[in-house]
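Q: Fold this one first, please.
A: Sequence and structure below.
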Amino acid sequence: MTIFESIVHIERPVTEIYHFLADLNNHKQLMPPNVQDWRSTADECTLSIQNMAKLRLVVANRIENALIDIVAADEPPFKLNFKWMLAQETAYTSVSLSISAELNMMMKMLASGPLQKLADHQTQSLLELLMLPK
């Protein structure tokens, strides 16, 4: 497994961030522009990545205020897992996204850059979205 990780610190309570991330309907706001055909419920979503693949993602596990584990279903091009981990610190919440992908050597060369960019894009989008004044 190859792991791509991105971490941000957000000045919001862990419960607020958890409730946002626990509902896959909210994840559309975290996706880059090349993600299309988004359809979702609280527990699963389908999407297309422009000129690449169509995916169905399903929440496999939730641990309140700590973890949201999302897996690719329906024979994805490679085994894929998104793991959001949350930890309340003193004045902020630490939010980590780990994307694990089972990549052969050729796929690793092609997909490593885009998967790291996806992890970084999602955490930065979450930071920007939740830091907006309410």
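Q: Good. Now the second chain.
A: Here it is, same layout.
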Amino acid sequence: MLIVLTGIDGSGKTTAARALVESARADGRNALLLANHAARRRLSLLSERFGWTLPPRVADFIETTVRLFNVLVNHARAHKFDGLVVMDRHLPCQLALRQANGLGRGRLLPWLLGKLPAPDLSVHFDVDPRLAHQRVTARGTDNETLADLEAFRAAYRSLPEFDDFVVVDAGGSPEQVYAQLNRVIAGSEAMSIPWN
């Protein structure tokens, strides 16, 4: 079973992904966590350290290249893995970032989305950008403004792919969000999606 988690920074998707894989392993199931990052955090930290700002199209080129590489490598790994695969982020994340930054969808990312194996379940972690900003600020490893997070959330909701996402309310505690995620998975299992 392939599950993809999406959501803005501070929505808790990485925490939930780790908990899901750890729980599956504790139950004796094969489970694999794969991260499809785009190096945004590293670029942000480098920009802050050296005092320069990348033009949006340059930043997008770097982020898209890194994300594409990770997605392709991780799909190859997932194909060889027998069990639960949880992907933290995917190509819709890059499409949302492009939208939030005023860039078009382009042709490559939508084309690849149509060619790659579709996930059995795509879960979107929706959260109020103000709460997400508090979380991001508290962890101190990102440099996201409230306006960035608001634009990112709106961009996700504007994606045509959003209609295929199962949306969970990520505004609660990690335990509450994880419980919602488990209910979503249980519902998918009831619809005969196998979980090896």
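Q: Anything worth noting on the second one?
A: The CA atoms of residues 61 and 67 lie 10 Å apart.
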